[in-house]
């Protein structure tokens, strides 16, 4: 009798001795799941589950098992139409993300997706990226974040890519990992996920290859992980709040490359949970990037042959429920300084905007007051508006130019549509190279 009572205890003890995976340790517990409600709420709101921008949101909701079958079916059907109608104009990374979202898991019967067709198109877009690098001093058409997404999708969906080329271009010293000499944690994290997929496909024998390439890839992962960990802040974030989610995924899949004391994932998770409660992830893409890691998932869990998990409609959120993503703007006015800086020439204006306005509102006001000096255009991206031209001068990936946003001399870590300005701010758009 006594012995049989002890058995479960012994089992528990043995279980606790088995080393647990970082992703399991860091996963938000069942009891704490309600902390994720604001994220899911932001993501499911009707406006943001439409268009190609929805890819990351869909991928995240499906990996986390947050949709019911009807929602999944509806969103996927809609998304297939979007991909079909926009495919020729999609960048390589957008298509890669779309493939990851569609193939995150096996959806309801009756929806058939021609993966091989999409993957073939992606292979061509990836080739065009490499070609641009060869012709333009190593600069891709887009950037290494997107090239990493390409390799990840091609690897997971049996597409065509050259392993030696991957080993060559993803060297951690490559300039494309850096903006202004600053290591991009987002980019490094996505590269680790891509390289890990390639490495796994080599070691599982799907890809017969020179061991030298495998060694190189292994080394790249090790160095990239070191760089990501070097960007850990005191409160445990990796890079900044928006790069942390994907960096966590990179660290989950490469726990052999660092010591347990180099990353206390619970600390990172707890800081993130605190930030959620303070409304840090109001943007659907930001919410989408952090959610998988908090569920203990990574983009390497994408598997089109694995049935989706449904029914955990735990928050009972309908797709129709709208949610405001813009911060409240109050009636009182504030004054800010705004300048356009091109090389050594600076044109300055003082504008008055409503309290709570964002950077973009300031630019609009300046343009209204003096179109000759302050005209600009913006493009909608999954992170909100991206400033493409100012006074007719256009940003260009082939020569690594862009319009940099600054406040009081410091580059912003938010885009023009989300950075809330303060009275007296010295705001600047500066013609820069990265
Ligand atoms: N996504 C992409 O292709 C973008 C990849 C990314 C690494 C991205 C950050 C990370 C991510 N998770 O999506 C990225 N940024 C890149 C590559 C770039 C470059 C874009 C040009 C190119 N080569 O394709 C570039 C020019 C260096 C760049 N980002 C500029 C900027 C500034 C935008 C200013 C403008 N003209 O509008 C800005 C505002 C920095 C500044 N001070 O000027 C900027 N980026 C920021 C802040 C960000 C973060 C956005 C955070 C937020 N809450 O708004 C970012 C998440 C992101 C988007 N950039 Co870039 C990085 C971060 O802070 N963690 C793939 C596609 C399919 O979706």
General description of the model:
The chain is of the alpha+beta class and 434 residues long. It folds into 2 domains: 31-301, Glycosyltransferase (Alpha/alpha barrel), CATH 1.50.10; 333-433, Beta Complex (Ferric Hydroxamate Uptake Protein, Chain A, domain 1), CATH 2.170.130.30. Helices cover 46% and strands 13% of the residues. It is built from 16 helices and 10 strands. The strands form 3 sheets. It has a 5-stranded mixed sheet, covered by helices on one side. A 3-stranded antiparallel sheet has the order 5-6-7, with helices on one face. The protein has a two-stranded antiparallel sheet with strand order 1-2. The longest helix has 21 residues, at 115-135. The protein is globular and about 70 Å long. Mean pLDDT is 92; it is low at 320-324. It binds COB(II)inamide. The site of COB(II)inamide has 34 residues, from helix 6, helix 8, helix 10, helix 12 and strand 6.
């Amino acid at each position: 009798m006594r012995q049989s009572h002890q058995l479960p205890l012994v089992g528990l003890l043995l279980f606790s001795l088995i080393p647990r995976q970082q992703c399991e340790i860091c996963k938000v517990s069942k009891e704490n799941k309600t902390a994720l409600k604001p994220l899911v709420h932001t993501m499911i709101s009707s406006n943001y589950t439409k268009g190609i921008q929805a890819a990351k949101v869909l991928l995240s909701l499906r990996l986390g098992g947050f949709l019911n079958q009807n929602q999944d079916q509806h969103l996927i059907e809609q998304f297939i139409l979007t991909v079909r109608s926009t495919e020729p104009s999609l960048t390589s990374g957008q298509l890669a993300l779309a493939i990851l979202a569609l193939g995150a898991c096996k959806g309801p019967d009756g929806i058939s997706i021609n993966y091989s067709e999409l993957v073939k198109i992606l292979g061509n877009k990836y080739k065009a990226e490499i070609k641009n690098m060869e012709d333009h001093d190593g600069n891709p058409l887009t950037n290494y974040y997107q090239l990493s997404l390409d390799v990840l999708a091609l690897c997971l969906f049996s597409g065509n890519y050259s392993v030696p080329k991957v080993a060559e271009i993803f060297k951690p010293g490559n300039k494309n990992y850096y903006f202004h000499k600053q290591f991009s944690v987002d980019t490094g994290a996505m590269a680790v996920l891509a390289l890990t997929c390639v490495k796994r496909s080599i070691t599982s024998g799907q890809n017969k290859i020179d061991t030298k390439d495998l060694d190189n890839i292994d080394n790249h992962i090790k160095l990239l992980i070191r760089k990501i960990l070097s960007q850990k802040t005191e409160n445990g974030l990796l890079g900044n709040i928006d790069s942390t989610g994907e960096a966590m995924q990179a660290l989950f899949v490469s726990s052999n490359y660092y010591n347990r004391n180099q990353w206390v994932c619970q600390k990172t998770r707890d800081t993130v949970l605190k930030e959620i409660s303070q409304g840090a992830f109001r943007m659907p893409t930001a919410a989408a990037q952090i959610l998988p890691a908090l569920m203990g998932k990574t983009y390497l869990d994408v598997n089109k042959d694995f049935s989706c998990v449904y029914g955990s409609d735990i928050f009972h959120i309908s797709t129709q429920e709208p949610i405001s993503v813009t911060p409240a703007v109050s009636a009182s006015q504030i004054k800010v300084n705004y300048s356009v800086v091109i090389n050594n020439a600076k044109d300055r204006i003082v504008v008055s905007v409503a309290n709570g306005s964002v950077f973009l509102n300031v630019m609009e006001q300046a343009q209204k007051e003096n179109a000759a000096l302050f005209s600009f255009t913006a493009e909608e991206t999954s992170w909100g508006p991206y400033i493409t031209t100012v006074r007719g001068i256009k940003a260009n990936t082939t020569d690594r130019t862009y319009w940099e946003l600054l406040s009081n001399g410091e580059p912003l870590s938010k885009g023009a549509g989300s950075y809330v300005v303060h009275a007296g701010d010295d705001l600047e758009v500066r013609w820069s190279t990265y």
